[in-house]
Design brief:
alpha+beta, BirA Bifunctional Protein, domain 2, eight-stranded mixed beta sheet, five-stranded mixed beta sheet, 15 helices, 16 strands, binds histidyl-adenosine monophosphate
Length: about 425
């Protein structure tokens, strides 16, 4: 196959027969974000490379190995966003959104790019829905954010998706923890991969999410950050758990969660499942109290999460959760002959203007083929126009399911009359008669 008809490895197309699934989950996410007071933010797909190096962290896998970075013709280094948090924080800072009053709550849908080895649930271009909240250090915000994610999963009727939480402390407790980690990993210096060796001095916590099987094995028995929390971080974590208990959100504490991005502090969490293979983390997030400062702003405690839409849809598919198809056509008007075709064209415009979905022939098919097409697209009603109908300015609307027919006039009130037939039918359906 020639290159121009082949997609790039690790990317996916969403075809018309699948897109309703995306629209359905996106609608629920949007709706839930609004219910929780989040407003949408849209940021560019590429940013200065420096933003991710500083924000996500120099010693992370994402920055060290996975970014799509290139020089522009103007000689600037830019990077396709590997995630949504850094860009949102940059935009909020740049436009002084934090001056509008705290907390600032934003939601987003973003495409992300990571040069990872593609496999089921791991793509090079993937999509995230995320929520970010700036300007609160209160543990109730952590719990509220987790509740928002949980309620999206509940509304999508997802089962067997478990919430795991941990605290990775603040810079104060992290210093102690790093010391303990260095001591531990020093013993395995000759076995660690080169990347992890370089992390040993700079950021030993990053060794814990190395993907090399040998390093993973060594990391299993490394000291756990939760045992090194300062009093403040401990208290924060206890309160988050109390609020989650209060909201009836089930969780387990998993001391091994450290997350793969450097900006996190205190609470971190993941929603994980066994239903989609080895890439089972559907949603990840946590607190990042130092990020805004790292990017040049003031100290603004913040938090957020992102869920991968491809993984979420895969999970729903594997669990047999049916996504309702959107209605494609309320009325199909078939036209026979030039005059009828013109009339059908005018009437279907009226239908669309009235807010209903209408279609007519645009490929020059004969009557039989037009009706076959109406059936194929699942038209609820159909109407056939020929010379007689045009002359009498009347035609029959047929209910495609029951075969019932009703005559309506082809005047300016056409769309209105059709709407009456349409709503009567819908009310009967709802009433079950
Ligand atoms: P993350 O854990 O790197 O966190 O990604 C969040 C979610 O994106 C994952 O749980 C997964 O569902 C999806 N995802 C990540 N990488 C891939 C991939 N290669 N292919 C398919 N799906 C993937 C973040 O990105 C943070 N920005 C989350 C966050 C927001 N933290 C605070 N605010």
């Amino acid at each position: 196959m020639s290159l121009i008809t082949k997609k790039i490895k690790g990317t996916e197309d969403v075809l018309p027969k699948e897109s309703f699934k995306w629209q359905f989950v996106e609608k629920i996410m949007r709706n839930e974000a609004e219910n929780y007071g989040f407003k949408e933010i849209r940021t560019p797909v590429f940013e200065h490379t420096e933003l991710f190096a500083r924000g996500v962290g120099q010693t992370t896998d994402v920055v060290q190995k996975e970014m799509y970075t290139f020089d522009t013709k103007g000689g600037e280094s830019v990077t396709l966003r590997p995630e949504g948090t850094a860009g949102a924080a940059r935009a909020v800072l740049e436009h002084a959104v934090l001056n509008d009053g705290l907390p600032v709550k934003v939601s987003y849908f973003v495409s992300c790019y990571r040069y990872e080895k593609p496999q089921a649930g791991r793509l090079r271009e993937f999509h995230q829905f995320g929520l970010e909240e700036y300007g609160t250090a209160d543990p109730v915000a952590d719990a509220e954010l987790i509740c928002a994610a949980q309620s999206i999963f509940d509304r999508l009727q997802i089962k067997e998706l478990h919430l795991e939480i941990n605290s990775i402390g603040c810079p104060k407790c992290r210093a102690e923890y790093h010391k303990a980690l260095r001591e531990y990993f020093e013993k395995y210096k000759d076995k660690l991969c080169d990347t992890c060796l370089s992390r040993l001095e700079k950021n030993p916590m990053r060794i814990l999410d190395c993907k090399s099987p040998e390093d993973k094995k060594i990391a299993e028995n490394a000291p756990k950050v939760i045992d090194y929390l300062c009093e403040d971080c401990n208290e924060h974590f206890e309160k988050v758990k109390t609020y989650l208990d209060g909201a009836g959100v089930k969780y387990i504490v998993n001391p091994s969660i450290v997350r793969g991005l450097d900006y996190y502090t205190k609470t971190v969490f993941e929603f994980v499942t066994d239903y989609i293979g080895s890439q089972g983390t559907v949603c990840g997030g946590g607190r990042y109290d130092g990020l805004i400062e790292e990017l040049g702003g003031q100290h603004v405690p913040s938090l957020g999460f992102a869920m991968g839409i491809e993984r979420l849809l895969m999970l729903m598919d594997n669990q047999g959760i049916e996504i309702p198809k959107s209605d494609t056509c309320d009325l199909y008007i078939a036209g026979l002959g030039d005059k009828a075709k013109l009339k059908a064209f005018e009437l279907i415009k009226q239908i669309r203007e009235s807010g209903l979905k209408g279609e007519t022939d645009v490929v020059g098919r004969g009557l039989r083929a037009q009706m076959k097409y109406a059936d194929k697209i699942g038209a609820k009603f159909s109407m056939v126009l020929g010379d007689n109908e045009i002359e009498e300015s009347k035609a029959k609307i047929k209910n495609m399911e029951t075969g019932e027919q009703v005559e309506i006039s082809l005047t300016e009130s056409f769309a209105q009359e059709f709407f009456q037939v349409y709503t009567q039918n819908r009310n009967r359906l709802i009433a079950g008669v």
